[in-house]
Amino acid sequence: MASKGTAALEAMIEEATVDTDGYEDERAGLFAMIEEHLAVPFTTTVLGVEVTVRKVELAADSVVAVCVRDRHWQRVGLLDLPLPTPTPDGAAWIDAYRHWAGR
User: Fold this and answer.
1) What is the pLDDT of residues 8-42, one digit of tens each?
2) Which run of H or of E encompasses 67?
3) Are 50 and 68 in contact (CB under 8 A)?
4) d(CA 68, CA 53)
5) Engineering a disulfide at 88: which of 21, 31, 42, 64 sits with its beta carbon 3.0 to 4.6 angstroms away?
6) Rounded to a whole number, what is the largest CA-CA distance in the chain?
7) pLDDT for 57-88, tens place per residue?
8) Which of 77, 83, 79, 80 is nearest to 43 (CA)?
9) ω before 86 within 30° of 0 (cis)?
10) Which residues are 66's β-sheet partners?
11) Nearest alpha-carbon partner for 94 in 86, 24, 82
């Protein structure tokens, strides 16, 4: 799935943040849409190692992906998470979050 255009991303952000008040509420609104629409689990590569993204979480200051390999796990910020090709269903919400965050 190709990345959506700016207008589409801004429409998604508006949908996610329509009833929010401030930065924290906006981030929580975007997280809710990511959590609802992103198809997990999916595999991707982080620092040259294949991992499985099991879920997304709202952290104190960001949205993170919980990545697992064997018995080890690591939280990786969605702003830094490389997405596989093809992207999982719902990955456009990650694009919207990145656009909102200025990336």
Assistant:
1) 999 999 999 998 999 999 999 999 999 999 999 99
2) strand 63-69
3) no
4) 6
5) 42
6) 41
7) 999 999 999 999 999 999 999 999 999 999 99
8) 83
9) yes
10) 55, 75
11) 82
End-to-end CA distance of the chain: 19
User: Does residue 67 contact residue 54 with C-beta atoms inside 8 Å?
Assistant: yes
Q: Which of 69, 98, 61 is CA-nearest to residue 83?
A: 98
Token pair recorded at residue 28: 């929580």
pTM of the model: 0.91
Rounded distance between C-alpha atoms, residue 74 and residue 15, angstroms: 30
pLDDT(48) > 70: yes
Over 50: is that where the pLDDT of 5 sits? yes
The DSSP secondary-structure symbol of 85 reads S
Contact between residue 94 and residue 103 where contact means Cβ atoms under 8 Å apart = no
